[in-house]
Design a protein that fits this description.
Layout: H1 18-24, H2 36-50, H3 66-81, H4 89-104, E1 105-106, E2 114-115, E3 117-126, E4 129-139, H5 156-163
Antiparallel strand pairs: 1-2, 3-4
InterPro entries: Kinesin_motor_dom_sf, Myosin_head_motor_dom-like, P-loop_NTPase
GO molecular function: actin filament binding; ATP binding; microfilament motor activity
Protein name: MYO5B protein
């Protein structure tokens, strides 16, 4: 299949805005420069053409930008193809991420907020429009609960719970 190597520039760039989504929408792979939107468009076209499920596999090291690439692909699909129910589908699908990040993100030597999760996002379509999505999350580093390398930290939730231990609503937890 098609492979795109993306590099995290560690700063916002204007290459993910609505006008760029419009540029890639409806174009064949290779018509324009390589981009995460081109991959999302190709997966969508193959799904419609052959009536079969498609996958985008986003892989890389810690801090490479995998989560952001997944968000951009989802944004592309919801904005270029539309949603049957709501135009804020991307926000709804990813709304759980902030809560889940406390339970599965940790400080590593390369990234202060590194996800220790593997994620599988399944996007539902009807009449060629996005109808919803499901995120399945897999905790990849269970060993981090009992051991962290020097200069690294445990999952954020442990520090957040300890910092909040004096709140009345947490008094019964024995923190």
């Amino acid at each position: 299949g098609i492979i795109l190597i993306a590099i995290n520039p560690y700063k916002p760039l204007p290459i993910y805005e609505e006008n760029v989504i419009s540029t890639y929408s409806g174009h064949e792979t290779g018509d324009l420069d390589p981009h995460i939107f081109a991959l999302a468009e190709e997966a969508y076209r193959q799904m419609v053409r052959f009536g079969k499920n498609q996958s985008l596999i986003i892989s890389g090291e810690s801090g490479a930008g995998k989560t952001m690439s997944a968000k951009y692909a989802l944004r592309y699909l919801t904005m270029s193809r539309g949603c049957l129910r709501d135009s804020s589908m991307e926000e709804k699908v990813l709304a759980s991420s902030a809560i889940m990040e406390a339970f599965g993100n940790a400080k590593t030597t390369r990234n202060d907020n590194s996800s220790r999760f593997g994620k599988y996002i399944e996007i539902g379509f009807s009449q060629e429009r996005v109808t919803g999505a499901t995120i399945i999350t897999y905790l990849l580093e269970k060993s981090r609960v009992t051991f962290q390398a020097k200069a690294e930290r445990n999952y954020h939730i442990f520090y957040q719970l300890c910092a909040s231990a004096t709140l009345p609503e947490l008094q019964g937890l024995g923190l």
